[in-house]
Inverse folding.
C-alpha cells in the first residue's frame, strides 16, 4: 500500500477520472438527489405520498431514496424538484 497522499480536486467525480463536463453533471445530479431525499424526510412523506407529489411511481421514489443515481437524468431530477416546489438554480464558479 502506498503512503502517498493525493490532494482532492474538490470534485469526487473528477478525482474518479470523469471528464470535467461529466463530473459537473454528476455533481449536480448527486446534489439534487440529496436535496430531494432531505425534502422527503423533512416532510415525513411515505414513498407513496412522495410518488404522488412528484407524479412518478413509488418504485422511482425508492430508487431515489436508495441513491440509484444512474437511473435519473439531470432533467428528471430538476423536474422532480420543481414538482416538489423547490427552486432549482445553477451556481457558476469563475
Amino acid at each position: 500500500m502506498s503512503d502517498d497522499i493525493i490532494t482532492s480536486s474538490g470534485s469526487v467525480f473528477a478525482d474518479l477520472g470523469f471528464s470535467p463536463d461529466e463530473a459537473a453533471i454528476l455533481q449536480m445530479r448527486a446534489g439534487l438527489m440529496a436535496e430531494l431525499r432531505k425534502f422527503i424526510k423533512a416532510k415525513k412523506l411515505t414513498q407513496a405520498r412522495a410518488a404522488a407529489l412528484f407524479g412518478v411511481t413509488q418504485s422511482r421514489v425508492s430508487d431515489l431514496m436508495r441513491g440509484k443515481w444512474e437511473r435519473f437524468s439531470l432533467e428528471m431530477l430538476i423536474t422532480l424538484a420543481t414538482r416538489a416546489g423547490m427552486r432549482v438554480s445553477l451556481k457558476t464558479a469563475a
User: Anything to note?
Assistant: Residues 20-42 form the longest helix (23 residues).
